[in-house]
Write a structure and sequence with these properties.
22% strand, Aldehyde Dehydrogenase, Chain A, domain 1, 499 residues, 2 domains, 7-stranded mixed beta sheet, Aldehyde Dehydrogenase, Chain A, domain 2, 6-stranded mixed beta sheet, globular, 16 helices, alpha/beta
C-alpha cells in the first residue's frame, strides 16, 4: 500500500494542495512506497508567514529554556533510534548501522547547540571611555531555511536546524523529496519536546518551493547541501536577494598513501571510506593516490582482495556492507561513468555493474568498482561519480600527490596516510582543502568544530556546525552606553570618543 505523506506546518500535518506529487521509492525493490506532496509558491509563502509569527514566541524563550527543549528532543530521538533508522534505511537504502550513524552525527550537533547559553555570550568592555561601557549581543535573524540532500536525511537537517533553533530562529526545512519521512518524524519529536508550533516546519517540494524560499524577503538565511551547480545557483540567488547563505556542493576527496604507511590498515580504511553508504557521501574517499609504483602495486592488490569480499545486500540485511543506491538514476549515472572510464583507457580492476541481489532483483544495486591507472585528464577523476567507485591515480612522489589534491576543482576533504610526522605536518599546512585527515580517511570534524569545504565544494563565508553556525544564524548588535551620575554638562553634538 502506498503511503500518502504530508507537509508539517504550524505543529501539524498538512496535506498538499498543489496537485503535484513525487514518488518515494523503496530502493531495495524498486517500487513506489509513498507519495509526497510538492508545495506550490502560495503554500510555501503560507509556511513562511506561520513561521514568522511563531518565531516571535520562540525568540522570547531565554537560552536556557531553548536548551532544555533541545535536551528533551535528544532523549526522544535516542529512544526512537531503532525505528528511525529502519525508516531512514527503507527510503534511502543505506544499511541500518549506517542509518543510525546518520542520526547520531545529527544528534551530536544538537548536543553542541544545547550549550547555547554559553555560546550566545557577547563581549563587554567597562569604562571604554569616561563613563562609557560597550557590550555586544547576538540576536536571531528571524525565519531561516534549510534545503537538504537525500544522502543524509537526518544528519544534515539537524546540522542546520540545531544551531538555528538554539539561537532563537524559526526554521523551514525543505528536505529531499526522495526520503522525506524521517524529517517529518523529527518535526513531530521537536513538537513533543516542547518546541512551540510553527518554529520547525517541513515543506516538501521541487524547484518552485526552493525558488520561493530564495526570493521571499522574510527568509533571512539559507543553508544548502547538494551538487555544486545547484549550490552555486542557490548561493548566488540567495545573496542577490540579500540573504545569508552557506552552500556546500560536490567533492572528489583524495587519500595520499605514502610508502611508509601500513598498507593493510590503509586498505581497510579505504574500503569503508570509498564504498560505505554505496559511495553516496560528499566525504567519501573516491581517489586513492599511492606514492611510488611499488606502493601502488601493493595497495591495488590489497584493495582488490577486499573489494571481492564485500557483501552488497538489501539495506535491512544486517550482514550487508552497503545497500542500494537511492534511485535508478544513480545506477544509470554510475554505469555510465564506468563505461566512460573504460573508454578513456583506465584499467577496470573490479566491475560492479550488473549486480543482482537476492530479494532485491529489481532494486537499485551496483557493486563495488575499482579503477587503476587513472590520469588527471580523465572524467572519472575530474567529476563526482557519487557511487561505489574508487579510482587509483599513481603519483611519482609526495609533491605530485599534494599537487593533485591542490589542483582539483573540489576541496572538500582529503587524507594522508603516513608514519612520518614531518610529512603529515607539511601536508596539513600546504594542502588546499577544507577538511584534512591524517591517518583518518573521512575527516568529518566533531560537532564543536566547523564543517566546510574549499574551492567549488563550498560557497559562503561561514560553515556548518561549530562556532561558525552560531555566527551564521545570529546578527551582532553592539551597544555603547553612558549613565551619567547627576546632572552634568554635556555636548550632545560631539560623537563620544574613547578618551
Amino acid at each position: 500500500m502506498v503511503r500518502e505523506l504530508t507537509h508539517f506546518i504550524g505543529g501539524q500535518h498538512v496535506a498538499g494542495t498543489s496537485g503535484k506529487f513525487g514518488d518515494v521509492y523503496d530502493p531495495n525493490i524498486g517500487e513506489v512506497q509513498a507519495r509526497v506532496p510538492l508545495a506550490s509558491k502560495s503554500e510555501v509563502e503560507a509556511v513562511i508567514a506561520n513561521a514568522e509569527e511563531a518565531q516571535k514566541v520562540w525568540a522570547a524563550f531565554n537560552p536556557q529554556k531553548r536548551a532544555r527543549v533541545l535536551m528533551k528532543f535528544l532523549t526522544l530521538v535516542q529512544d526512537e533510534m531503532d525505528s528511525l533508522a529502519a525508516l531512514l534505511s527503507s527510503e534511502h537504502g543505506k544499511t541500518i548501522p549506517d542509518a543510525k550513524g546518520d542520526i547520531q552525527r545529527g544528534l551530536e550537533v544538537i548536543e553542541f547547540a544545547v550549550g547555547i547559553p554559553h555560546l550566545l555570550k557577547g563581549e563587554y568592555s567597562e569604562s571604554a571611555g569616561t563613563g562609557i561601557d560597550v557590550y555586544s549581543m547576538r540576536q536571531p535573524l528571524g525565519v531561516v531555511a534549510g534545503i537538504t540532500p537525500f544522502n543524509f536525511p537526518a544528519m544534515i537537517p539537524l546540522w542546520k536546524a540545531g544551531p538555528a533553533l538554539a539561537t532563537g530562529n524559526a526554521f523551514v526545512l525543505k528536505p529531499s523529496e526522495r526520503d522525506p519521512s524521517v524529517p517529518l518524524r523529527l518535526a513531530e519529536l521537536f513538537l513533543e519536546a516542547g518546541l512551540p508550533p510553527g518554529v520547525f516546519n517541513v515543506v516538501n517540494g521541487d524547484k518552485e518551493a526552493v525558488d520561493t524560499l530564495l526570493h521571499d524577503p522574510r527568509i533571512k538565511a539559507v543553508g544548502f547541501v547538494g551538487s555544486t551547480p545547484i549550490a552555486q545557483y542557490i548561493y548566488e540567488t540567495a545573496t542577490a536577494n540579500g540573504k545569508r547563505a552557506q552552500c556546500f556542493g560536490g567533492a572528489k576527496n583524495h587519500a595520499i598513501v605514502m610508502p611508509d604507511a601500513d598498507l593493510d590498515d590503509v586498505a581497510d580504511q579505504l574500503i569503508g571510506a570509498g564504498y560505505g553508504s554505496a559511495g553516496e557521501r560528499c566525504m567519501a574517499i573516491s581517489v586513492a593516490v599511492p606514492v611510488g609504483e611499488e606502493t601502488a602495486d601493493r595497495l591495488v592488490a590489497k584493495l582488490t582482495e577486499r573489494v571481492h569480499k564485500l557483501n552488497v545486500g538489501r539495506s535491512d540485511d544486517l550482514g550487508a556492507d552497503f545497500g542500494p543506491l537511492v534511485g535508478q538514476d544513480g545506477v544509470d549515472r554510475v554505469n555510465n561513468y564506468v563505461q566512460i572510464g573504460i573508454d578513456e583507457g583506465a584499467e577496470l580492476v573490479v566491475d560492479g555493474r550488473g549486480l543482482t541481489v537476492e530479494g532485491g532483483e529489481n532494486g537499485y544495486f551496483v557493486g563495488a568498482t575499482l579503477f587503476d591507472k587513472v590520469t588527471p585528464e580523465m572524467r572519472i577523476y575530474q567529476e563526482e561519480i557519487f557511487g561505489p567507485v574508487v579510482t587509483v591515480v599513481r603519483a611519482a612522489d609526495y609533491e605530485e600527490g599534494l599537487r593533485l589534491a591542490n589542483e582539483h576543482e573540489y576541496g572538500n576533504g582529503v587524507a594522508i596516510f603516513t608514519r612520518d610526522g614531518d610529512t603529515a605536518r607539511d601536508f596539513a599546512a600546504r594542502v588546499q582543502v577544507g577538511m584534512v585527515g591524517i591517518n583518518v580517511p573521512i575527516p568529518v570534524p566533531i560537532a564543536y568544530y566547523t564543517f566546510g569545504g574549499w574551492k567549488r565544494s563550498g560557497f559562503g563565508d561561514l560553515n556548518q556546525h561549530g562556532p561558525d553556525s552560531i555566527r551564521f544564524y545570529t546578527k551582532t548588535k553592539t551597544v555603547t552606553q553612558r549613565w551619567p551620575s547627576g546632572l552634568k554638562e554635556s555636548n550632545a553634538f560631539v560623537i563620544p570618543t574613547m578618551d
